[in-house]
Write a structure and sequence with these properties.
- By secondary structure, the protein is mainly alpha-helical.
- The protein has one domain (about 1-65).
- The chain contains 5 helices and no strands.
- The chain has helices at about 1-5, 10-15, 20-30, 40-55, 60-65.
- It is elongated and about 50 Å long.
- Pfam families: Phage_tail_T.
- This is Phage tail protein.
Length: about 70
């Protein structure tokens, strides 16, 4: 479902347009580089740290995590 969301497609469209081997390839890729927002907290913390850093304040990434 996450792949369909990321590609802006419905599940029916993916089933119709992608082969089983291509879907398996995406599933394997997702194991190493998740497609979803599971790590959005880290991306947000990086932004927070960068904004504070631009103002001369050091904020470690762990301190900026939600």
């Amino acid at each position: 479902m996450m792949l369909a969301l990321r590609m802006g497609r419905t599940l029916s469209e993916l089933r119709r347009e992608m082969s089983a081997s291509e879907i398996m390839m995406w599933a394997e890729f997702d194991r190493f580089s998740p497609l979803g927002d599971e790590r959005a907290d880290i991306r947000a913390a990086q932004i927070v740290s960068a904004v504070y850093g631009a103002q001369g304040v050091k904020v470690p990434l762990n301190d900026a995590l939600l």
